[in-house]
Write a structure and sequence with these properties.
- The protein has 316 residues and is mostly helical.
- It contains 13 helices and two strands.
- Strands 1-2 form a two-stranded antiparallel ribbon.
- The chain is globular and about 75 Å long.
Length: 316
């Protein structure tokens, strides 16, 4: 008799409830939980659509998405402008750069912990990774503000010294934001990739070594391809973390609307909402909800595309 059967037998003997009743109650609880999860997602999507569409009809979708001028409260009698093209491009470029920087470091660190590092060293490195995962995002922002931005300012001075066209930002720029984001996604990528690597069947590694492959060749030609779906999952979750971050990026990016160039002060979709929601009103506030809707659609599209890639990898 297995443990599940024993549990059911104990419930039946002590409460007098039949097995079918217990199963029906359990199925009902599971169904309610599933419906609640679906309802929560649907409610969020509906709220974002209801809150984000009024500004589209008032301002125009083309004006919002493809204009680069953001001036919601002009003082000289000029009509307000709500263009967020630079904000969208900054989110795309910044997130992509952070993933390109953070994912290789995270995957290689996971390989080190799972396949290369001695047990004592792996224990300490794993503890450091767990500590990274537990640090609040605002702490990352403060560290970036106090340590990274001054270094970026020195680099900025060295590159653009004597330039009359460059606007100095004090080190608060896109490059600083990318580095902070790359560090913040490391724990997610490392932990999930490490778990995937450890789940690769031992006989695959043994067969590769028996055929004369070195340990490094086995890692890159057998183990990593075998856990590809898990690594893609790590990339999906890491990308979601990078897209949705706001507080740390607000502190290190400069929060100005400019083209997404490395040494420009920039504003992401998330920071655009955080920076102005506190005092916005009227059409300005409605446009901020539209930015939230754009962010929501952006995240849904990325998750859908990466999930399809994941399923394709599993089929192969």
């Amino acid at each position: 008799m297995d443990s599940e059967t024993k549990v059911v037998s104990i419930i039946e003997s002590k409460s007098g409830i039949s097995k079918s009743t217990v199963e029906n109650v359990a199925k009902g609880i599971f169904t309610v939980c599933a419906v609640t999860a679906v309802f929560a997602v649907a409610a969020i999507a509906l709220y974002m659509i209801i809150s984000g569409t009024p500004a589209i009809f008032k301002v125009g979708l083309k004006e919002i998405l493809f204009s680069t001028e953001w001036n919601p409260a002009p003082t000289s009698g000029i009509d307000p402008s709500f263009g967020i093209l630079y904000v969208i491009l900054t989110s795309i470029v910044g997130t992509s750069m952070a993933v390109l920087l953070g994912v290789p470091i995270g995957v290689l660190t996971a390989v080190f912990l799972a396949e290369v590092a001695p047990q004592g060293i792996a224990k300490w490195v794993s503890a450091a990774v767990e500590l990274l995962a537990g640090i609040p995002s605002v702490i990352y922002g403060l560290l970036g503000l106090m340590i990274l931005n001054p270094l970026m300012y020195k680099l900025e001075l060295a590159i653009f010294k004597g330039s009359e066209t460059h606007q100095f930002t004090g080190g608060a720029n896109l490059l600083s934001a990318v580095i902070v984001l790359a560090i913040m996604i490391l724990p997610t990528v490392i932990n999930i990739s490490q778990s995937s690597i450890r789940q690769v069947p031992v006989h695959l590694k043994s067969a590769s070594l028996a055929l004369g492959a070195s340990h490094i060749q086995t890692i890159f030609k057998v183990i990593l391809p075998a856990c590809k779906s898990g690594i893609i999952t790590a990339i999906v979750l890491g990308t979601g973390r990078a897209i949705g971050e706001a507080m740390a990026i607000t502190l290190v990016s400069g929060s100005s609307i400019n083209a997404p160039l490395p040494f420009n002060s920039v504003r992401f979709l998330t920071t655009a909402i955080v920076a102005e929601m506190g005092y916005a009103e009227g059409i300005h506030r409605q446009v901020l909800f539209t930015i939230g809707l754009v962010l929501f659609v952006f995240i849904m599209l990325i998750n859908t595309v990466l999930t399809k890639i994941l399923k394709k990898g599993e089929v192969q």
